[in-house]
Amino acid sequence: MINYIWFFILFVGILIGIVTGRGADITKAIVDGADYPVKMILGMAGMLCMWCGVMNIGEKSGLTEKLANIMKPLLKILYKSAGKDEKALGAIVMNLTANMLGLSNAATPFGIKAMEEMQRLNPKKDTASNDMSLFLVMNAACIQLIPSTVISIRASAGSKNPGMIIIPAIAATSLAAIVGIISCKILEKYF
């Protein structure tokens, strides 16, 4: 359905542009619209490579493990059954830690593994457990200590200070994670 809506909007816009004699403006807008994203992606690629390198150094240096050790006691409290299982808790910790450090490419396999481990512990195989739901919420609202993707986008768009987003990102993602966790814990009691 949404495809039809978008087609209708584009078709009517182009038709009105042609009827009003602005065909050249439409052509220019189409060319410019196709050109800008390519330039932006190329600009982002360098920044993302740099940040991925920095994050990999942090991972190899043991920073990820240290952060994981700090998080484990809190996660044992939050996750009822997964908190008692070392395999599940280990995958959860590694996923959240990698996401916090902006290593989303490293976080994905840990997230899949965490869900598989929690499914193994799940008594109702056709329904997501409370731990699985909590993990999805925490993963979606994951606290970003270094929002490397946003920094890269800001840098490629010509921002004078692309790193200025770090403190607001930490505040916003922390608040989102806290609200998400509280909401999950409240809803667990009713569903």
UniProtKB/TrEMBL annotation:
It comes from Clostridium oryzae. Residues 42-154 form the Nucleoside transporter/FeoB GTPase Gate domain. This is Spore maturation protein A. The chain crosses the membrane at residues 6-24, 36-57, 88-112, 133-153, 165-187. It holds the Pfam family Gate. Keywords: Membrane, Transmembrane, Transmembrane helix. The keyword NAD does not apply. The keyword Transferase does not apply. InterPro entries: Gate_dom.
